[in-house]
What does this fold into?
Amino acid sequence: MQQLMIISEMKHLEELTETEWDLIETIRNYKKSFPNGEPRLRYYINRLFAELLDEPLDD
It folds into this structure.
């Protein structure tokens, strides 16, 4: 059963864009830095999210 889950997860990984993968990895790194979360990581996460939604950024 564990092997099936890994294969299933790998199929989902193949469908991620580079931006989506970068967003996930950056969120993981941000969570690891909690409670002293790096402000630049949070800003970068917001930029990636906005890019994925194709929304203009309000800088």
Notes: Residues 12 and 59 are 33 Å apart (CA to CA). The helical segments are 2-14, 18-32, 39-53. The mean pLDDT is 77.
